[in-house]
Design goal:
With 279 residues, this protein is of the alpha+beta class. The radius of gyration is 19 Å and the shape is globular. It starts with a strand and ends with a helix.
Length: 279
């Protein structure tokens, strides 16, 4: 890179992202560069990077990378941030479509802070009875769901506040049952009917994050199937609350929540040099 690159820092419920207009890039970022950009000490710091580009099938395209530098699938909170940025800065329509990993999603900017996505139908990967052997002390039931990316939903009987999410999350994320790609892990408890609390261990970030959009959808699926809850379902994480709205047969699923544009900055060309080049 020979020029400065403008970036936007945004978050949805504390799940934070670097967003860059990819139409201005001369070449794609290497994995090492993405990891350093997302590093909270040596870079900007984020749970992931979103590159915005053109699409022949939608209003724009999103290429999403986790903090580990590797491309990932759907990211609900990151996509909501991208929709707001495209609307506020790049004049995309309030109701828009975007492409990510070959899938087309519909979205709407509801207010200056709230963005709603229409999600794809979910797929159940393993039902609770198939996961019973993993239910150790303090765990009630589990459900493995693909809500854009794989999510293991774990209903716990112990205190959610006292849970060691990073230790328990890593153990389940890398469990042989979920090989080869592993899984995100969502630990849930019931606050009241229609209202879940959740803490999330995110694959690709490899630690707890403050919120997860696709995870919220997976948690709502669990509550609907296990508790018989009807729409809407609120999913509260340490970073804030998301709302999942759905019809009776789960063919129309919507994820609604706030996003915030925190700051705008530039990355200087020297940052893109490898360690070897800097010597």
């Amino acid at each position: 890179m020979k020029e400065k690159i403008q970036f936007f820092k945004m978050h949805g419920g504390g799940n934070d992202f670097i967003l860059i207009d990819g139409r201005e890039l001369k070449a794609p970022f290497e994995n090492e560069v993405i990891r350093r950009l997302c590093d909270r000490h040596m870079g900007i710091g984020a749970d992931g990077l979103m590159i915005l580009g053109e699409s022949d099938r939608a209003d724009f395209r999103i290429d999403y990378f986790n903090a580990d530098g590797y491309a990932a699938g759907m990211c609900g909170n990151g996509a909501r941030c991208a929709v707001m940025l495209m609307y506020k800065v790049f004049d995309a329509p309030r109701q828009c479509t975007f492409e990510i990993q070959g899938e087309i999603y519909e979205a709407e900017v509801k207010t200056n802070e709230m963005v709603q996505l229409k999600m794809q139908p979910f797929q159940i990967l393993h039902r609770p009875e198939e996961l019973q052997a993993l239910c150790t002390e303090g765990i009630q039931k589990m459900l493995w769901v693909d809500s854009g990316v794989p999510h293991l939903v774990v209903e716990i009987t112990s205190s959610l506040d006292d849970l060691d999410v990073n230790a328990m999350g890593a153990a389940l994320r890398y469990h042989p049952m979920f090989e080869p790609q592993g899984t995100n892990v969502n630990f849930i408890s019931v606050k009241e009917e229609g209202w879940l609390r959740v803490r999330v261990y995110e694959r690709g970030v490899e630690k707890e994050t403050l919120s997860c959009g696709t995870g919220a959808v997976a948690c709502a699926v669990y509550a609907s199937l296990q508790f018989g809850w009807e729409s809407p379902i609120m999913v509260e994480s340490p970073g804030g609350a998301l709302v999942v709205v759905f019809d009776r047969d789960w063919q129309s699923i919507y994820l609604l929540g706030p996003v915030e544009l925190v700051f705008v900055g530039v990355v200087f060309p020297e940052f893109f040099k490898s360690k070897k080049e800097k010597r």
